[in-house]
């Protein structure tokens, strides 16, 4: 499928061109809404994949929306249109539905420092915990220096890293327990590389308690 730039779309809308080539489908009683796939593809990698990979939605140009009502989706879609302003379309009546749809989409997005900061700013604790865990499990892929002005988040990073290390160490517990049982059966006077078996048995027991 041919892709258009945001500037091309904007010029089409400015000229009054009807830029729709697909239908967003909802429940039986809500019907469907005409949309432009390029608007959705520019805004979302999920839609971009949907309409460029030969999926059923790409050929039929119809796709089902299950994370939002028709009213909430239309409000969200209007905010994506070139030249649109969220302030024009987000109202006290639809803000909750739009926010809920955004949160559901964000929960399926990969973690990033930007999304971590967003989740913190919006007090989305479940998302914050999810992104924090994912970032600390692959922290070499993220620029943590961005968090320098955010001491509270950095503290959470330290705690999350410690928790990750504890979880990794916990995976070693069965092996330590096996060594503990093996050393415990050693005859008195036995040593391992100069370490008395009795002392090693005691040290392994302490390590098990820590794990």
Written overview of the protein:
Helix content is 58%, strand content 7%. By secondary structure, the chain is mostly helical. The protein has three domains: 1-84, Potassium Channel Kv1.1, Chain A, CATH 3.30.710.10; 110-170, no CATH class; 173-210, no CATH class. The protein has a three-stranded mixed β-sheet with strand order 2-1-3. The protein has a two-stranded antiparallel sheet with strand order 4-5. β1 (22-25) and β2 form a beta hairpin. α5 (70-80) crosses α7 (95-106) and α11 packs antiparallel against α12 (197-210). Residues 1-10 and 12-17 have low confidence and may be disordered.
Question: Care to give the gist of this entry?
Answer:
The protein is mostly helical and 211 residues long. It has 12 helices and 5 strands.
Please outline the major beta sheet.
3 strands, mixed
Counting DSSP E segments of at least 2 residues, the number of strands comes to 5
Question: What is the helix content?
Answer: 55-70%
| SS class | mainly alpha
CATH class of the largest domain: Alpha Beta
- Specify Rg, calculated over alpha carbons: 27 Å
**What is the distance, rounded to the nearest whole angstrom, between the alpha carbons of the first and last residues?**
55 Å
Proportion in β-strands: 5-15%
Total domain count: 3
Biggest sheet strand order reads 2-1-3
The CATH architecture category of the largest domain equals 2-Layer Sandwich
How confident overall, as mean pLDDT? 78
Instruction: Name the CATH homologous superfamily of the largest domain.
Output: Potassium Channel Kv1.1, Chain A
Question: Order of helices and strands, N to C?
Answer: HEEHHHEHHHHHHHEEH
Low-confidence runs:
1-10, 12-17
